[in-house]
Design goal:
Largest sheet: 5 strands, parallel
Structural class: alpha/beta
Bound molecules: zinc ion
Distance between the termini: 37 Å
Number of helices: 11
Oligomer: single chain
Length: 358
Amino acid sequence: MKGLEFPLVGTKVAGLTKKFDLTDLHSRREYFEAKTGKEITKLKDFLETGVFMAFLVGKKASGKGTRAGMFAEVFGWDKVALISAGDIVREVHGELKTASGRKDVQDYLEKNYRGYISVNEGIKAILGRSQDRVSVPDEIMLALMKREIAKHPGKAIFVDGFPRTLDQISYSLFFRDLARFRDDPDVFILIDTPLSVIDERIKYRVVCPKCKISRNIRLHITRDIDYDSDSGNFVMHCDNPSCQRAVMIAKEGDNLGVEPIKGRLETDEKVLRSVLGIHGVPKVTLRTHVPVEKANSLFDEYEFTPEYVLSKDLKSRKVRVDEKIWVVKDDNDVASYSLVAAVDVVLMIKQLADILGL
Ligand SMILES: [Zn+2]
């Protein structure tokens, strides 16, 4: 099947030559201001009294939460909340373990849930759910999301992880009424990430056994890398001082890349395509990658994801790190650069301002 082809929109601003370090919070703030300051001002005014509800739709590991988090960086967590369906189920699972927690959840569901199975069966489904939470009935999920959203009055809401199946798309169309958002605008934010990008993010991922932070030996390195002459491998240490140079390790199965989650990614892609065909709800489309031949006319070089090439310097016996632009094949086999998450946030802000009529 042909890959998705979202509109190709750049961020280049005529006359803006300053380079920004998008890994640095302060520099990133300047970058957002320089690239989309006008829309930020309008959206800030809007968020003084207004809210919206945005459903993030994209493949697993496409960085949905990262993008919402950076949006909140610009507008503040007092104006924005990120609701993750997966986190809600995990948290409710925890609540159900205590008697008072269970009573809270049960009372809420008795009042707010509508569906074919009983509240008790719904609770059983949460407690016995499989890892991928598919077993939690949609109607229970809706009630739990409504409960979570009620904890964030007056904030724009980003929903991550719902809709996740084709059935849930219909629910998402009417969710704003259910969640008492009524006439407040709702919008789908669609993120198209090439399979090759997700594959390498997983394949080269390493995790600190102490603080559990995850990095990537090719795409997101720490400053502390060694060469192990016994195994012939490069070894990355966690640079969190309290981890005392713990060696970061790959999780079992990560070396297989997207292979073990192929089925899940196919469903994600179907959901993306299906939402794309929906009428009546506005959509933000984020492309996340740009064909190499068009890249420099639309974006600045620091907006492309770099890859790090490690080599052993024979003289100094130190590890040498070279940085170059990462070239990936998109789903249509076109050589492309992958854009860093901050770029999507610029494009998201511009499209949102437009959709909200600001
Ligand atoms: Zn650590």
